[in-house]
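User: two proteins, same treatment. go.

Assistant:
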Amino acid sequence: MASSSSQYPSQYPPPLLRRHTTRISSSQSIYALKSSVLAGYAAGCCGLIIGHPLDTMKVHLQTNSSSPLILKNVYNGIIPPLLTIGAVQSLNFAIYDNVRRYLFNNSRNQTRHQMKHQITVRPTDDLQINYLTDDDLTSISFASLTAGTLVSIVTSPMMKIKTIQQVTSQSLKDAVKTAYGRGGVRNFYAGFGVHVLCEGPGRAVYMGCYEYFKRGLTKNRGVSSIEATTPERMGCAGVAGIVCWTVIYPFDVVRSRVYGSFERVKAGKVVGDI
């Protein structure tokens, strides 16, 4: 058997254990985190303002709403998500990032343990490599699934109120009264299971596809995925969004009908009616 030094003659230590040449300080990491949260909030607000009219049309078609869909009604229900998007984005990012880091570090430690008898790591070697470019797509999807599932607990009441407003053209105050008056707090979580299916697996599909396409594009150019250009990121996000909605759309139809109902109905009954 060849010695450990001959196994990795030109790239010691091996790629999985070798750190990137760019050192990122803690202050830079905090700044990047703050920038990501602020950018997410700004992007979310812009996305809501542009996409909410289309979402209202979608909900009307899904629920067969009899409420007139006129120009002044297309922004019905935008207030709840607009007020909460900053907190939701921050919570989602925090959970996603921490789970992704944990999975990456756990995988790295297992690999180090398996290879400790094959190579000798010098004490001066920094084994912290960039999880943003070196983790696998399974970890990314699982982290997204976890974040989406947990965030669903926060977003369910918001989705209930938003959908009622879109379907009935009620004011925010009246929509809250309608939702609460038909079963109390529990009514805000009627259909929670199908909501989780949209948010959890939906985010997993989206982020997994997004990273897959982004890494594929940048690999062809011979650069890291974090060096993807803005057009590349937008293109990858668009394709990932199409794949995501193709997967979750049937669940979204059921969710809209459950959340838009005045009564507490079960998702199974809605599926049967469809």
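Protein 2:
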Amino acid sequence: ARAIVEYVKDGSNLRCMLVPDFAVINVSLAGVRCGRVNRAAPTKPAGGDAAGAAGDAAAASASSDAASGDKKAGGAAASDTTTKAPEGGAKADKGGPSPPPPAESKGGGPPPASLPAEPFAEEAKFFVESRLLHREVEVRFASMDRYGNALCVVSHSAGEIARELVKLGLGKVSEPGLAGVDAAEAAALRDAEKLAKQAKLRLWRGYVPPTVAGVDKEFDAFVVEAVSGDTVSVVRCGDDTFAEVRLQLSSVRAPRVGNARAGRAGEPWATE
């Protein structure tokens, strides 16, 4: 659907108006996560409100007592000045009423502070604003997250904004958000993130590739057992000890096979 970007919350969250329906929707970029700009500080525990309310009540009581005392003192002063008026006239009260106590936020403390923006969140927001704000885009619905937010692919005539964010290291690939994205677009996002990691751009400036101690990155082997759909046991070629090495396929989870000793039934399609 065609839409116009009305507001950019951060690099991966937008508010769009559909055209020509003029319906306003909140859109999150599918498969990409950028840093948050405005983050609220953690709230106080539930007991804090009660304690704050008690503190406010005590302060109000003390203020009322002080006010009643001021009134009594003021009455006595007025009586004295009335009796002495013939001699020197009434004296003006220079003190005046006492100022009210300073206002406090609910809970008895200062107003809640916001946390600073996450790294490169402002840069990601500006990158999207300068290219998409108040411009027409193409929005394709992909899926929904667990909170009910729409995950969409947002395309401009110059390209897809999500891919550019990942390519420049302003965003990271979110695997759960790729559930409804087509395979070609998901592969393009992963390739863009791989290039950003290699160049150590922005969010990946301190990236160190993971290593596995004691295991070569590549080696030839024979498969001696298929433990499950995603786990196999292998023996290295030329290894006279025939030591088995168990390997798991990356980014894949197959149904678990049943275990009679543990009393666990196999998951559907595990044997197949």
